[in-house]
Amino acid sequence: MSDVRGEKLVGIVLVSHSAEVAASVAELARGLSGAGTSVPVAPAGGTEGGGLGTSSELIAAAAASVDRGAGVAVLTDLGSSVLTVKALLAEGDELPAGTRLVDAPFVEGAVAAVVTASTGADLDAVEAAATEAYSYRKV
Q: Does pLDDT of 2 surpass 50?
């Protein structure tokens, strides 16, 4: 699958312990990037029952929903979200081919990933942009 211009785009999955946090960061990244709905971004937050935590099922479903053939970048908030994604990657059949856990700050990395993906960049470039967000200085 590709976007309306026929380009294959990198999909972005944002994994948080909170459904609200994941959804808000997805909305923020889309809004700040100006990408609107062109970049496939999916939040995967909380548990199936709506509690705090992480869910391999929600993560796998989110990854499948954003897969457009150019890879999927997964950004996580902390702790068990990282471990859950690593476990899914190790299983090898739960996530789309070309899914990658990206070591990046959650909010800044998400914005950088979505901005970069909106240009049609490949997964390596999306990962590099998100990772580079670690160097953003605030003071």
A: no
